[in-house]
Design brief:
CATH class of the domain at 29-185 and 250-259 in chain A: Alpha Beta
Structural class of chain A: alpha+beta
Number of strands of chain A: 5
CATH architecture of the domain at 29-185 and 250-259 in chain A: 3-Layer(aba) Sandwich
Largest interface: A-B, 127 and 127 residues
Order of helices and strands of chain A: HHHEHHEHHEHEHEHHHH
Distance between the termini of chain A: 47 Å
Oligomer: homodimer
Number of helices of chain A: 13
Chain lengths: 265, 265
């Protein structure tokens, strides 16, 4: 049943199921929040779940800033594409790829950490932050909360760093608005590509995978008629990736990271 | 109780708890697997969970190759630092940051997707792959399976791409060895940094956060005496980030991505 919604295909089922899988399959982005607070105990639990995610060589190259102050949320919303739900959410978590902690360690020890100059290490920062944040997303849903990621926090990373007082070698990777879902929100579970489009066995088979796209375009067009700006998946992807003008400033990310102290040598 | 293990601190507790949080907090890397297979139904469930994770603008810029063939696993193990558990695991998932699907769409439509030339888009590929893969990690644990990520799949990305028949604009992000944990494995739940070292409120406070590191160094040294190569966290981090020689070839990632068709403009 939950697989049917996930794939927008009444025939889709799973041969194994449990409460955790059902929770994961029922994920949707929440952009309209009820008035109840996210408690400090809940915040602690979300971060403990995040810290439980795997991390490369136990580097733990991330930090998170929990923002509740309405004025700071408003300023961050303005920096991140004026998305009103950021202000409306009781809790806005800004996930930070943070090589600063290791750089400060090195400075105190008088040691070299030249590996941190390479794109590989910056990518470990982003990846490990994502692994952690996804655990927080699932933890939030297990507590009856909802959330939505905010990639637009990368539209103006230097201003976000100043607002949050980030030290050098740290960058806001994405935001996560968290709160109790408002049941009046008009939203659904967005169907994903058929599993055959993303799962390959032994070797990648582009023709077999891409053959699923036409069906998915129909599925998502139907969904978008009800819930989204209209359009097929293919059209939305092409529109989103058209060029630098479709990137809200993020085409400058490499130079910005360099200035923030996360070089991509 | 699970918070105590997670933080290596008998006094650590959570004010809220449920089965999902307990599962997440009990995470550990599994590197020794029992003989039972991972069924196809389980594989389907892991991938459905992965596809349920959030993805930027619904781009779904990832694919996954499920490897069960013993000879292919052996060749991948050789490419990824000769880690024997890759061969031993019944299932090895290679997670692929995949801009190829969108590039092929564009080619068929005669459209431009110049945004895919920028580091921002490559990073979206890595981040969204990580969000998906972490859902698979949690799903696996909910089914009684264990796993470990293999970043060393990035040691030799071109050879891995050839082995898996990856198309242009696709790169193996990390591997995930999956199987039933062998109960005889000598391993524990690795303590993480105290929450105060990573969680900031309203603004980042480096001095307050870093003040927790000395205690953590002691906690992890004690853990490492039992389970790992010895050393404090600080020493391990400095050793890991020393320089290009500590990166097993991954200092070349930027040029390699360029050649694979994931430029970082």
């Amino acid at each position: 049943m939950s697989a049917a919604a996930r794939y927008g295909d009444p025939a889709a089922t799973l041969g194994v199921v449990n409460d955790v899988l059902s929770l994961q399959l029922a994920h949707r982005s929440v952009r309209k929040f009820g008035s109840r607070e996210v408690t400090d105990d809940e915040l602690t639990a979300l971060i403990a779940a995040a810290q439980s995610a795997p991390t490369s060589s136990n580097l733990q190259p991330w930090s998170v800033v929990a923002v509740r102050d309405p004025e700071r949320k408003a300023r961050l919303a303005a920096l991140a594409g004026n998305q009103a739900f950021i202000e409306q959410a009781p809790l806005f978590l800004v996930w930070v790829a943070d090589l600063g902690r290791a750089r400060r360690l090195a400075e105190r020890a008088g040691a070299e950490v030249a590996a941190a100059d390479y794109l590989e290490t910056t990518i470990i920062g982003f990846v490990d932050t994502a692994l952690a944040a996804q655990n927080a997303v699932v933890a939030a849903e297990s507590l009856g909360l909802g959330s939505v990621f905010v990639g637009a926090i990368r539209n103006r990373p230097e201003q976000v760093a100043a607002e949050l007082g980030l030290p050098p070698h740290a960058v806001a990777t994405f935001g996560l608005a968290v709160g109790a879902p408002d049941p009046t929100e008009h939203a659904g579970i967005k169907p994903r590509l058929p599993q055959g489009a993303v799962l390959h066995r032994e070797q990648y088979d582009a023709a077999a995978a891409d053959a699923h796209i036409a069906t998915y375009d129909e599925t998502l067009s139907a969904y978008n008629t009800r819930f989204g700006p209209p359009g097929s998946w293919s059209n939305r992807v092409l529109d989103r990736l058209k060029g630098p003008e479709s990137m809200a400033g993020r085409h400058r990310l490499r130079e910005t990271l360099e200035r923030l102290g996360l070089p991509s040598r």
